[in-house]
Structure formats: structure tokens, C-alpha cells
UniProtKB/TrEMBL annotation:
Pfam families: EamA. InterPro entries: AA-Vitamin_Transporters, EamA_dom, EmrE-like. Keywords: Cell membrane, Membrane, Transmembrane, Transmembrane helix. Residues 16-146, 161-296 form the EamA domain. The keyword Ribonucleoprotein does not apply. It comes from Methylophilus glucosoxydans. The chain crosses the membrane at residues 45-64, 76-96, 102-123, 132-151, 157-180, 192-210, 222-243, 255-274, 280-299. It is found in: Cell membrane. This is DMT family transporter. It is a multi-pass membrane protein. Its main location: membrane. It comes from the Bacteria.
Amino acid sequence: MTDTSHATLTPYTLGLLLLPPLLWAGNFIAGRAVSHEVPPVALSLIRWGLAFLCLLPFAIKPFLRDRAHYLNYRWHVLGTAMTGVLAFNLLVYWGLHSTSATNGIILNSFIPFLVAIFGGLFYQQRLSTRQLLGLLISLIGVLTVVSHGDIQVLQSLAFAPGDMIIFVAMICWALFTLWLKQIPVFVDRTGLMLCQVLIALILLLPLYIWEKQTAVTTVDHIQTVWSLLYIGIFPSVIAFLAYAKAVTLVGSVRASVFIHAMPIFGSLLSSVLLSEPFHGYQLAGMLTIFCGIGLANIGKVH
């Protein structure tokens, strides 16, 4: 398999790497907006049902063409469907019911480290000192943003049961990233995603039937409809396809580092969409995160 871990970043590749955290930051905002009306399993089912309908017209051909490859790599296909499509989102939605968004963003920032740790343990991927330093610098930037530049905020954080749920979700995403890299590049990512979403929907149905016994879904506002449409199209289809392509081009560790850009985009979106003020600590955190990402992408993974 071709080593892409030290591929040169082009404007096209950089766009692929930055698009997912931008759209996933919007997913946090939209997900919070509908959390009181749509319970976690129902939200996941609606999200991936919409994604399936969006993918179907242009993914059905590669899906049918590559079906033999899905069988050849069935454990990786099943594993990526269960971790990245089913478990990650469901666990995040569930965990956010009992913890803060700040804690969720902090835990989300450990994904690149988990990818690096699991990659080293199971796939002999090694980080250079420069890449490790870049990861740590970008993490400092993340903590600057979520703490509002006040270390006492971090010291006073209280961890809730939902934090453990979200941390398990982060482990799922790290495994998804690594297993995705093991599926060869000749397997079309659009058809592959259709297959992954189909598997997730099949597994979600019994969970949805169980959830309906205790939770009610209410979609009474047009804002909820727009939020669900956003969740089902942009962070689900567009961001997933961009991330899958980026992992193929630059490798799992380098692609995962860009997840640290999520709080930057979250702050910018909050300022634009919610008219929240943009503060100096957010700018400082933004610059620190991009410095760390840049440093991590100069080094090579051997």
C-alpha cells in the first residue's frame, strides 16, 4: 500500500482537510439546537437516513461496482461503519445530554493523540518529535479557546458521566480513521460510504424501536427542520467524503490533527450565526492551533 503520510499539502488537499472540522463544528451547533426535540437514536437515524438519500443517486454505481471489494475487506468495512458512522455520532449525542459542550470539545481534541497511539501500537506508525510537538501546541490552542483564556476555567471543570461516553466515542473515531486507511484507494469512497451508511441504518433500527418506548421525537419548528437537513447533508455526507479522501491522500495521523480546528470554526460560526462577540483569546487560540497543525504537517510519519 502506498505511503502517503509525508505527501505534500496542496491547496486542494488543505481544503479537504479543513472542510470536515468546519462542517462538524456546525454539527455541534445544530445538534444542540435540536437536542430537546429529537433524542439521540432518532437524531442519528434521521441524520443517516437523509445522508443515504443524498448519496444514493451518485453512489449507487460505484457501490454496485465495488461490492466484491466490500466482501474482500468486509471486516474493515463493517468496522468503519460501526465506529465512524454508527457509534461515534450516537455516543456524542448521548453524552452531550449529560455533559457540557466545553467538555465535549476538550475530549474531541484527544482524537489525534488516540490515532497516534493506536497507530503506533497496531500499525507501526511513528511520530517525529516535531509532529508530537505540533500536536501538543495545537492542543494548547484548543484549551485556550474552550477555557476563554482563563486557566481557572479548566481547573474548575467538573466531569460528568457523559464525558466517559464521549471519550468512548473518540476512541471509535480514532479506530475509524485508522481502519479507513487500510481500505485500498481503488475502492471508491462514495460507494464505500453508501455501504457504511446502509450498515449503520440497519443497526440503528432496533435501537430506535427500543428508544421509542421512553422518548418522543417532536419536530414542531421550521428551525428544527433546517437543522436536521443541515446535519443530514453537510457534516454527514460532504464532511465524511472529504475526510475519507484526505485520509487517503495524507494518512490517518496528519488528517486527524486538523480536527483541532473545530473550536476555531465553532467560535467563528457562533460569532456569525449567534452574534456572539469574538474575543482576543479566540484569536490567540486560533493562531496557536494553526501553528501546531502546521508544525505537525512538516514532519514525517515513517
